[in-house]
């Protein structure tokens, strides 16, 4: 039998894992942008306003390590790198879209108050 303390501990642990992946300021915008399909690095960078190259690289490495994105390198000159969401990353898309929708509704309410 699992006691309530162990159950809550497991919940906190999985929530922490989610926050480790999505807690970065740029993770959700990157996933949201990649939900439209495969993108090259520069294309992705141009699609996300105000992100700098260093942060994009850092977030993409973190998401790749966590199985959210796939990084594919092509042997061209200069090298071509494309990013796509993994099936695990694709499962986040509906959640992020709902958060985006909620944010739009909240922003509208805040302006009208």
What is the compact description of this entry?
The protein is an alpha+beta fold.
H/E topology pattern: HHEHHEEHH
What would the average pLDDT be, to the nearest integer?
A: 87
| Intertermini distance | 50 Å
CATH architecture group name? Orthogonal Bundle
Largest sheet: 3 strands, antiparallel
Envelope shape: globular
Number of strands: 3
CATH superfamily: Winged helix-like DNA-binding domain superfamily/Winged helix DNA-binding domain
What number of structural domains do the residues give?
Answer: 1
CATH class: Mainly Alpha
Overall radius of gyration? 17 Å
The residue ranges in which pLDDT falls below 50 over 5 or more consecutive positions are none
Task: Give short descriptive properties of this protein.
globular; three-stranded antiparallel β-sheet; 63% helix; Arc Repressor Mutant, subunit A
List strands and helices in order, with pairings.
Blueprint: H1 4-22, H2 27-34, E1 39-40, H3 41-47, H4 53-65, E2 69-74, E3 80-85, H5 87-90, H6 93-112
Report on the structure:
This protein has helices spanning 4-22, 27-34, 41-47, 53-65, 87-90, 93-112; strands at residues 39-40, 69-74, 80-85. It has 113 residues and is α+β, with helices and mostly antiparallel strands. A hairpin with a 5-residue loop joins β2 (69-74) and β3. The N and C termini lie far apart (50 Å). The mean pLDDT is 87. It contains six helices and three strands. It has one domain (4-112): Arc Repressor Mutant, subunit A (Orthogonal Bundle).
